[in-house]
Amino acid sequence: MKRRDYDAVIVGGGHNGLVNAAYLARAGLDVLVLERRPVLGGAAVTEEVYPGFQYCVCSYVVSLLRPEIIQDLELARHGLEILPLESTFTPLPNGDYLVRWADHDQTRRELYRHSPRDAEAYDEFGKLMLQLAMAVKPILGMAPPDPGSMRPGNLAKMARLGRHFRDLGSEKLAALVKLMTMSSADYLDEWFETEGLKATMAASGIIGTFLGPRSPGTAYVLLHHYMGEIDGAFRAWGFARGGTGAVSEAIASAARSLGAEIRTEASVERILNEGGRAVGVALESGEEIRARLVVSGLDPKRTFLGLLEPDELPSEFVDSIRHFRIRGSSGKVNLALAELPDFTALPGVGPHLRGAMSISPSVEYLERAYDDAKYGEFSRRPYMDIILPSMIDPSMAPPGKHVMSIFVQYAPYALNGGWDDERREAFGDTVIDTLCQYAPNVRDAIIHRQVVTPADMEETFGLTEGNIFHGELSLHQLFFLRPAPAWANYRTPLANLYQCGSGTHPGGGVCGAPGRLAAQQILKEHRP
Question: What is the value of pTM for the model shown?
Answer without folding.
Answer: 0.94
